[in-house]
Amino acid sequence: MISACRRRFSLQTMKSIPTRTICGHEYEMDSMTNITPAIASRLSHKLLSQPSSPLALLWRRIQRHFDSRHPGVFDFLRHDDPIVPVQQNFDELLIPASHPSRSPNDSYYLNRKMMLRTHMTAHEREVMATGRKSFFLVGDVYRRDQIDCSHMPVFHQLEGVCIFSPDELLSREAEYSHLVGEIEKAIGSQVLQVEHDPKIVKLALADLYVTLHGLMKTLFGENSRIRWQETFFPFTRPSTEAEVFYDNRWLEVFGSGILQRQVLHPSVLERDPNAIAWAFGMGLERVAMVLHGINDIRLFWSQDDRFISQFSSQKEDSEPIKFVPFSKYPPICRDISFYLPTTRDFQPNELYEIIRDVAPDLVEAVTLADEYHDTKINRMSMCYRIVYRSMEKTLTDTLVNNLQSELRARVTRQLQQSHHMMADRIFSNLDL
Questions:
Q1: Using CA atoms, how far apart are residues 178 and 180, in angstroms rounded to an integer?
Q2: Buried b (16+ CB within 10 A) or exposed e, 149-180
Q3: Does the structure show a pLDDT above 80 at 117?
Q4: In whole angstroms, what is the distance from residue 42 CA to residue 59 CA?
Q5: Contact, 152 vs 42, CB < 8 A?
């Protein structure tokens, strides 16, 4: 009798755990779950599979470059499933528990064990485990971010890795000797990994330097000005970033460096205890927007034929087709303001996620218009300006006002739960 009661209680407890189905798999939800319907809807879109997508065109252009310059050296892999264990995305890449990227304000969690990958670096070790030494990985990655014409919570990232033995690099010493000065300048005062011979590190960086210079010249032109400077990533040391001068400004293109030995899959070091590897990452949207003159990142997700058809005639070896705006529909601006306790740490991403869920692809930008401390009630007043603008049609005041009313209700409900905000003091302007 007791055991039967316990079984019934156990079944009831199991049934009470909320679950959610994403990409055909069911996941338990917990206090870390923060994937909204708007984000979940992006998971089924495979932009790299669409032949005329500027992102797919860029990916194929990169493949052609390496097939031509380095035939048979690199494997090209597309990883479409963005759901990974938290350990794989952070712990295995030496990202500290206190790092801000782990916060639910910055990343998307299915639960405390599973998440949407924030970078393609999360798959490097599993590819190394297959025995591959040189490869490129591409796929969609997810980060909670601001709302404007150049940021979205989902974008596509290219990751490159090349593993060497010291003897392979020493055989290229004469070829790379003229680059030593550039390499030393790029790594600056960074401390090298103690397991690495400084000469081997500089040769590996020289190979990375030559590899990425060649790609940038293919993408941006043979006469491109390129510069390198030191930076920091938890999973590489030393770390560098590469910028190219294009359209009268410096554009950051790559983050790169020498992979930390702890990041290498154990099988790599079993085969060669002295193995060393470089790695780099590149956001495809940022480069495609510049090359094609695309002025709004939302356009990559558009199904409007006026956008897609412009790139269908792109020839493999010709200059990137420049996007011609088919219309600039008028914006409609609305404000929303609310009070928050001064003791609470409010993150704007909380508001941005609500806005994206209420009006996906209809908001062009959100900016902080005003804030002040109301000493009478000891609360902070925050006012955000929302710019509604569709890329495909003219929005009506009625539609925007309905969205703004729904937004106000959602902000009241969700931020009140997390911040004890004053529900009776949320205002939004409606042009009725």
A1: 6
A2: beebbbbbbbbbbbbbebebbeeeeeebeebe
A3: yes
A4: 20
A5: no
Place 145 in a pLDDT band, splitting at 50, 70 and 90. Answer: very high
pLDDT by residue (tens digit) across 15-59? 578 999 888 889 999 999 999 999 999 998 899 999 999 999 999
Handedness of CA 193, 252, 361, 363 (dihedral sign): positive
For residue 132, how many C-alpha atoms fall within 13 Å in the half-sphere facing its CB?
20
Which two tokens mark 287? 């480069």
* Average confidence score pLDDT of the chain: 91
Could you tell me where the beta strands, DSSP code E, fall in 64-198?
75-78, 83-85, 114-116, 134-142, 154-164
Residue type at 222 in one-letter notation: E
Which residues face 337 on adjacent strands?
383, 427
pLDDT digits (tens, 9 = 90+) for 54-84: 999 999 999 999 999 999 999 999 999 999 9
Q: Span 191-215, mean pLDDT?
A: 97
Given a contact cutoff of 8 angstroms between Cβ atoms, the answer to whether 74 and 134 are in contact is yes
- Helix, strand, or coil here: 154? strand
| Structure token digits, residue 112 | 């405390």
- pLDDT (tens digit per residue) in 293-325: 999 999 999 989 999 999 998 888 789 999 999
| 8-state DSSP, 31 | T
pTM above 0.85, yes or no: yes
Least Cα distance to 157 among 256, 28, 250, 293 occurs for 256
Residue type at 93 in one-letter notation: L
CATH architecture of the domain 37-298 equals 2-Layer Sandwich (3.30)
Q: How far is CA 163 from the centre of its chain?
A: 24
- Judge whether 37-298 and 332-428 match in fold: no
- Count of positions (residues) in the chain: 432
The CATH superfamily holding the domain 332-428 is Ferrodoxin-fold anticodon-binding domain (3.30.70.380)
Residue spans of the domains in the chain: they are 37-298, 332-428
CB of 113 within 8 A of CB of 85?
A: yes
**Residue 33 tokens, joined:** 């779950």
Candidates 331, 302, 312; CA nearest to 392 is 302
From 374, 375, 388, 385, select the one nearest 348 (Cα to Cα). Answer: 385
